[in-house]
């Protein structure tokens, strides 16, 4: 290996490293924009990292200020849930006891020949049952067993009255908790309203703010010297164009490396420079042509589709650039043929008159020469 070929190899390696580094930075920024546009289309993939940090700081401050009401709200909700569960259990127990007492009272009333209509229309509360039991106790001629049953019912109705008083107390306690919950919920709702208003200044679809913030923090953390985060704030059209150019250069290097290793004719410094520039030009031309063709199909089909730069997939853009860089000569020839075909349409019959005019001119020249010869 000659020193010159070694130098060419070093230049190729440095060029590949530089192109790969810049391509990675631009691609990560463009992919971030594409992801943000998919999450929140109204942003068009563009957000301000400085504004995002400022809003995030203010949101954290508001959440810290409202931490007390938020914690109290959760505590009150848990107390209400616990109280509701206890109330349901107490009501179920009271209903079971009431049903058993009603059955026992009805049986005693039947044996004591109490009117059925009177027992059916009786009050089912503890007070109403107590009145019925007292009425049975005052009734003469009760058997000893019935008197013992009445005594037991009097004890049970007192317990039922205590349970009903406990339910009333729980109802009052729950009403106080609900009133406190409304007050605390209003404070929390006001804090949330301020948070949502701040988030909408960065991401109009504020429900996606947390996800966008996470994506932005991840990009900034992995960005060397903050380059990717800085590039991500550029316009998607510019980043897509730069990405195409870099991928065109990468495609050219993918062509030059095998040529450097396997081709009999050595690769020169001038060829490296020219090939890189030519690959970028071919990639840009093919990129523009492809987008123009897509736009033409959209118009022809009367279906207007979104063709903004933010909606262009960076993988597709990169593929276009790499293919055009590797096949830059073929791409240039293909574009030339297509362009020649477009501009020559409608003028194909124009050369016919000129070809027909040539024989006429020739015959007229012969006629001009004829008379002198014929005269002789």
Describe this structure in words.
It is a single chain. The chain is mainly α and 376 residues long. It has two domains: 3-47 and 223-343, no CATH class; 65-200. The chain has 13 helices and no strands. Helix 5 runs antiparallel to helix 6 (144-200), helix 10 packs across helix 12 and helix 11 crosses helix 12. It is rod-shaped. The chain starts with a helix and ends with a helix. Residues 116-121, 300-306 and 347-376 have low confidence and may be disordered.
How many DSSP-defined strands?
A: 0
Helix percent band: over 70%
Helical segment tally? 13
| Biggest sheet features | none
- Provide the β-strand percentage band: under 5%
Order of helices and strands: HHHHHHHHHHHHH
The average pLDDT is: 81
Which structural class is indicated by helix and strand composition? mainly alpha
What is the rounded distance between the termini? 80 Å
Comma- or semicolon-separated keywords:
rod-shaped, 376 residues, 13 helices, mainly alpha, 2 domains
Report a brief summary of the structure.
The chain has 376 residues and is mainly α. It has helices spanning 3-39, 49-65, 67-111, 116-120, 126-137, 144-200, 209-222, 227-231, 236-262, 269-300, 314-326, 328-343, 351-375.
Itemize the secondary structure elements and their pairings.
Blueprint: H1 3-39, H2 49-65, H3 67-111, H4 116-120, H5 126-137, H6 144-200, H7 209-222, H8 227-231, H9 236-262, H10 269-300, H11 314-326, H12 328-343, H13 351-375
Helix pairs in contact: 1-7, 1-9, 2-6, 3-5, 3-6, 5-6, 9-10, 9-11, 10-11, 10-12, 11-12
